[in-house]
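Subgroup meeting minutes
Present: P.N., E.W., G.H.
Scribe: E.W.

1. P.N. recapped why we're keeping a running log of single-chain structure predictions: easier to compare across weeks, and new members can see raw inputs and outputs side by side.
2. G.H. added today's entry (141 aa).
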Amino acid sequence: MYLWLKAAHIIFVVAWMASLLVYPRYKIHQLNAQPDGELFNTMRDASARLRRVIMTPSLIAVWVLGIGLVSMNASVFSFGWMWVKLLLVVLVTGLHGFYVKTGKAVDNGTATITAGKLKLANELPFIALILITILVVVRPF
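Output recorded in log:
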């Protein structure tokens, strides 16, 4: 059962990361589009579907499956790499919330973030994914 949970966890991590990399790009296109224009509305609708169908459900599945995995193997908390991984997952979860809040502000025309700053924030999930993967595979400490 543990390996099935682990496989499902990895599948939803991939889906969540992919959505976190795509979602801000939709919002960047919206920021650069004419408000209430065709591109703006298309990106608004596509990002809402992405958030509702993939992004948020994947976040929930990652956490539920992750908690299930550690409940089956609590000894993993004796390793320092796991605590760093958990910290990074909490930070990525916060980033998810930031994206959703920012996305709603873009939709409403009240966003204060620039497209350039959102492009920079768009790199953060990939950096976190690299670090988490190294921690889980290499287990450096």
